[in-house]
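Researcher: Please predict.
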Amino acid sequence: MISQRVLFLCTGNSARSQMAEALLRAHGGARFEVYSAGIEPSEINPLTVRVLGEVGIDASGQWAKPLGFFLGKMHFDYVITVCSNAEERCPIFPGAAIRLHWPFEDPAAVLGSDADKLAKFRAVRDEIEARIKEWLWSTE
C-alpha cells in the first residue's frame, strides 16, 4: 500500500498539531506519512510531550517546524488545520489533494493551576485522538 502524506497545521506547532501528528502516526501505521508545522512555530510545550507519554507515545523526538519547511517542497494528500488562526492564514498548498479543518481549543491558553492546565491538555489530546480514530474509520 502506498502511504498518503498528511500535514497538520496550527499557529505555534507546540501542542495541537504535534498531538495530531503523533496520534495519527500511532493509529494510522504505514497508511500515512505524518508531519506537522506552524505558521509561527515556537517550541513544543512540555505538557504536550507529557500527555502523549501518558498514552504510550514518545514525542520527545518531535520538534516545532515552520510551514516553509514543507511549502512548495512536498506534496500532501491531506492538509489539516487544527486551529482557526491557521485555517485563516494557511496559504494554498500547490498539489494538496484535500484540505480539512478540525478546530480544537488551544490547551496552552488555559489559565489556572498546573492541574487545570494538565487537565486541558489531556482533554484536547483525547478529542484529537477521537477525531483521528473517526477519520481513520471513515477513510478505510
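Model: The CA atoms of residues 49 and 59 lie 6 Å apart.
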